[in-house]
Amino acid sequence: MFKNLRTSTKLAILCTMFMIAIGVTTDSLVREKLIAIEFARRELAGARYLTTIRELFETVLERQPFIAVATQPVDPPRDLLGDLAKAQGNGDLSLHTGKLSGALATSLQSWSSNSARGAAPAVALDTIDAAQELATRIADNSNLTLDPDLDSYYVQNLVAEKLPAFLRLLGEMQIVQREIAAAGTASSEQSVRAEFLAGRLRASADEIKERIAAAYRGNADGGLRKAVDTAFASMVLSAGAYLEGLNGSDDRGRATSLELVASDGLYSRAVAETVGAWKSAELELDRLLQERIDRLLGRMHSSLALIATLVALSVLVAIMIYLHVVRPLKRLENVASTVRDSKDYSLRIDYSSKDEIGSVVSAFNTMLAELAAAHERERSEQSELARVARLTTMGAMTASIAHEINQPLAAIVANSSAAQRFLSLAPPDLEEVRGALRDIANDGQRASQVIGSVRAIFKRENQGKGRLAVNDVIEDILTLVRGEIRKHGVVVKCDLSPSLPYVEADRTQLQQVLMNLIMNAVEAMASLTDRERRLAVRSGVLDDKNIVIAIEDSGAGISLSDKDRIFDAFYTTKSEGMGMGLFICRSIVESHGGRLSASPGEHCGSVFQVVLPSSE
User: Fold this and answer.
1) pTM of the full structure
2) Contact at 8 Å (CB) between 216 and 185?
3) CA–CA separation, 515 vs 400, rounded Å?
4) CA-to-CA distance for 363 and 332, rounded, in angstroms?
5) Secondary structure (3-state) at 131
6) Do the beta carbons of residue 308 and residue 25 sit within 8 Å?
7) What's the pLDDT tens digit per position in 295-313?
8) What pLDDT shows up at residue 381?
9) What is the number of structural domains in the chain?
10) Distance separating alpha carbons of residues 482 and 519, to the nearest angstrom
11) H or E stretch covering 8
């Protein structure tokens, strides 16, 4: 089925399939980019949620029981509770942290109440633990722990896990030292715990340094180091100073040492520097994620722009293919159809190109030129064959023509003798003489008409087309072949329409067609002995544009095997025929825009129909 489609339809199908392929590819590309963008946006939402956790750590670690109550306000941190509720409300639907966020809010309210009455260390640490658990859940549910880039992966690990854990160790160490200071001396259990926490703080600081160094290696532009290196270096130094201050005295001098640490603000400084490093890491994480989102959006827009450009170029190429392939093919098809319908081989296609279409057009124009030359040769040969056929036909009609001429000549001789007798009378009978002379003149005109008809048929040159009355041509031919009709005992029945329109035709050629068909009908009935030899000649209007001439005989008819071949050149059923008569007749009729057909008669014989276009 596809091979039978028009070239334009095939091109349209090809373009449609190409557009569908582009659309599917673009959809897949956009979906992939949007998934990556949504992934990064989810990370960004988690990173911004962690900002509230940082603020909570900063607020709690700067109050009772970690430092003296006298220097801090005792009002509940309502702003912090509001920020936590707001952050949870914005992220809960996508991060599913509502339960942990509610637990943290409850723990924070309990700590705030206890802080006003004396701040139990366990409540404070529970609040820090709840915040740390929420930070871990935020990192897990916001895809931060699955971050694909090395720099942002290590930074998020610091923000969501390492720095909160480090601050928690600082807070626990501070509580242990305050318990030792309150007791005045350290128990063995407290000493072991303090040493254990100090070791963990140093290990955590080392791990943070390793993680930030790994983040630097993954950051190609070096912007991360410039932004956070100072903050993390200060954090490590302040933590080291805090630990060194704790190790400045023996067990009996612990109270004095703790008071020195508090007065110098080593703990507060360590917390502040750690929170500052956390904040700088948050800002850089936010920047890295936003840059990734912008980069992904830029790549998606660039890809879409490239695809749109390719689609536009493809459409342009399709239009050019249509203009340079489909349209020339349509012109070629139109010219070929026109040549087929009109037989006008002088037509040419005006198209010049060095591509395959140009080669085809050039070959087609050359073929048309050769066909025009061949058609001209064929017409010349057909004209010569027609003249030969007319000569052959007239040879068979010589006796009939001689009879038609002898009749007026004999009448002329008889009337001349009669006129002489009437003149020899005394007195001469002048009235009879005048009558005889009139008959002589009429017979002379009759003989002249016969001779003129014969001469016209024998002429090689055509007289040219003109408006003709078909009935007059039929009557002329019947007059010309009257002798043959009488000779074979044929009864002629004419049914000629009186209101027949004119036709535009060559009189001589039309006479040749009708004479050939009538003589064939007469010869077809020559051997009949069992029925009347009847020739019917009819004319009438076929439709608004055509008239029809029918010649029917009562002969043996045409066999089915011969029906489709009798109009072929050199095919004949006569023992002495040339096989050119009906071929030439059909060629003449078709050159006049008509058609010639044969069919069996109603009861016997054959019917030949000539259909010609009306000139009106």
Assistant:
1) 0.56
2) no
3) 13
4) 11
5) helix
6) no
7) 999 998 998 999 889 888 8
8) 67
9) 2
10) 11
11) helix 7-61
